[in-house]
Amino acid sequence: MFSIVAQANEWRAIDPSNAVLLTLPHGKVVIELAPQFSPNHVKQFTELARSGHYNNAKFYRVIDGFVAQGGPKDGSAVDKAVPLLAFEGEFSTDKNFEFTQVQTNDMFVEQTGFKDGFALGYDSKEQKAWMLHCPGVIAMARQTGADTATSHFYITIGQATRYLDRLMTVFGRVVYGMDNVQTIKRTAVIDGDIAVEENDYTSIISMQLMSDVPVKERINIEVAKTDTDDYRKKLHDRRIRENAFFFKKPPPVLDICQTPVQSRIVK
Amino acid sequence: MFSIVAQANEWRAIDPSNAVLLTLPHGKVVIELAPQFSPNHVKQFTELARSGHYNNAKFYRVIDGFVAQGGPKDGSAVDKAVPLLAFEGEFSTDKNFEFTQVQTNDMFVEQTGFKDGFALGYDSKEQKAWMLHCPGVIAMARQTGADTATSHFYITIGQATRYLDRLMTVFGRVVYGMDNVQTIKRTAVIDGDIAVEENDYTSIISMQLMSDVPVKERINIEVAKTDTDDYRKKLHDRRIRENAFFFKKPPPVLDICQTPVQSRIVK
Questions:
Q1: Among candidate residues B126, B91, B143, B85, the one with its CA nearest the CA of residue A247
Q2: What average pLDDT does chain B have?
Q3: Start and end of every PPIase cyclophilin-type domain (chains A, B) (predicted)?
Q4: Average pLDDT over residues A42-53
Q5: Any idea what the CATH number is for the domain that residue B124 is in?
Q6: How many domains does chain A have?
Q7: Residue B1 in domain
């Protein structure tokens, strides 16, 4: 009743050279990368994945409602060998910047909207845009400095951490298997609870570029196009909530992070 | 770095007669009930839990990023025997209504804030308040009519479904074991994926009032008080983000559903 389902002609196939297959002990996850917004982060992440950098790494910082963070052992040779990345948590636009606007009174930003299925913030005065920290995005962790990311990454698993927008570089989003991300073992417990053993941390079996995966083992994903009249109408309908289930109408606003962009598997 | 940790004298013990222990095959969950806001829903839910109504029921509608919904088999004798509940998704306040205000420019409501650790919306003109659909709340499902809830409930497991505020009756929130809620088997898959068998749906082993649980098996939870100067200072600090990690400061606003209220276990 609440979903936005795209019609047959309203889908975009994800290029397998622009997607990553994350294999966990309990299931698979597909992440679509966003080189159009964070080119150097995608390039480094892709090269690292292809080199086997993430294979057998662990999710060592997993906080329910916040993030699942993984990477190689801190200070290990493989960890220290990775070059620093310059911040790409926002990008400049021109006056003709176009996206499918969702909202203009978001609490954090002048405008929100979708471009290529990714949730963006946009400030028309600054002429800047950035990927938003909605649930299920992948971003690089970093030290205190803006330009200190290397290979450690996190996937957001709770309410959107919008206060991290423009402070961390988001570079993709989960398009399949978010349930498997949610099943990653939490490493943090509340006071008084039994601590989690490091041996129980969830391992990354492999992180592969989808185009490197044998064709028969690929998960081929299509995502709903977000720049069509059809999708705009769905946004409108979701905003208006004409269904009788809404016995009074909610405020006619959309939280972009609660506005789905559908995926499907194609053979 | 991002958490709000209450001091030793800033905790409130949850009354075991006001908490529910949900035992799942893979772990335990504690829910604090909110009779101060939704008295009849809490009363019916509590009586049903004590009667064993939910034992062996299944989570039959579990949609990633949305809700995990459970209850007895539709149309079964035990299902049909439950009386209808009148809507309690908002309540009237007087002019002296007090809560710990969090934000005044939330997209959905004039004011947000905490009362007794629960996230509320408040409209001073209408003099109405209501529990918000933040992640980890429990609410009653219903049919189309406002007053059609019975015993089927859902727990929110994704980005806050704020468009359901004032439309559904929230009556508590998870204060322990949200990771176990997130591990409930999803029943919905995307097009092209393998359907989930009903046999694989997650069962409720038991739903017990905590005061009915043998003392040795109880999980005794304290939650941070949200009406103290200490907590207000923590809200302030979280809004201002003085830590150097924030190399530029995010907008000084707080999404109440991304503002934690800590729990801890006491023996």
A1: B143
A2: 96
A3: 25-225
A4: 98
A5: 2.40.100.10
A6: 1
A7: no
